[in-house]
Amino acid sequence: MIEHMETIDEFLAHRTADVERAVREAAATEIMPRFRQLAAHEIDEKSGPHDLVTDADRKAEEYLTDVLGKLLPGSVVVGEEAVHANPASYEALQGDVPVWIVDPVDGTRQFVHGDPGFCTLVALAQRGVVLASWTYAPVRDQLSLAVRGRGALLDGAPLLAGAPDLGRALEVATSHPDYTTDDQKRALLGLRTEGVNPRPCGSAGLEYLAVARGELDAVAFSWEAAWDHAAGLLLVEEAGGAHLTLAGEPFRITGGNTLPFTAARDAATARRVLGLLSGGA
Asked: Which of 195, 23, 172, 45 shows the shortest CA–CA distance to 109?
């Protein structure tokens, strides 16, 4: 716990390793011991059969809420499971105090099925601006850090998204049709064209990491939940990428975006994907 009130810049200059430690410990303590070990009573549905929550989600979020709040006194936590229990807590994103945005298990469906394609996402934001993010894939033991204006790292090595090779079809991960409105489906159909290979996304956090690494050219998503996007969007930005909503504006974690939106390896690719989405809308 810090001894005095630090500024956010001071905190990010000296304490990112403390956050990384907390994320790793949450995974080691609450998530990985339950991986491929879940009993039926440890899995619940939220909005439907595709929207699952487990004891790992709940316990990891509780752990992170406690530790992160102590690391930065005066901050608040907006976690996926806490917001599900109390939707009004999401409004903290609109305030002035620093906010930790937490998705304890991004890719819960994969986690439940014993698939390693899940991660833990933590972002620190203030006044709607994401300042830092941590993306941890515990099965792979890979941790990505992004700090606004200071670049992005994967296990300590710089990340650079680069640009797609000319003449090669774009690889784009998209929202699953089960989670889209009719209008959004029509927009996403714009990606079903020559020169683009769309596919349904897995864990959003890992798809953003793939964009930041230059392994995936873009994502096209149709939902706004900040815990799914805040960490990854900053990671992509700091790796040299860009993001745009259907209105041609950067995505806002505070909401009110025109959907769907894209995040891509570079600005030109973001504009290209946006043009295809606009044509399908």
From this structure: 45
Give the distance between the most distant pair of CA atoms in the chain: 58
pLDDT one-digit tens code per residue, 171-225: 999 998 777 888 888 999 999 999 999 999 999 999 999 999 999 999 999 999 9
pTM of the model: 0.94
- Give residues with Cβ within 8 angstroms of 229, minimum separation 6: 204, 208, 221, 251, 253
Rounded CA gap, 134 and 123, in Å? 6
In whole angstroms, give the CA distance from residue 242 to residue 269.
8
The answer to whether the CB of 179 falls within 8 A of the CB of 262 is no
φ, ψ for residue 228 (rounded to 5)?
Answer: -80, -25
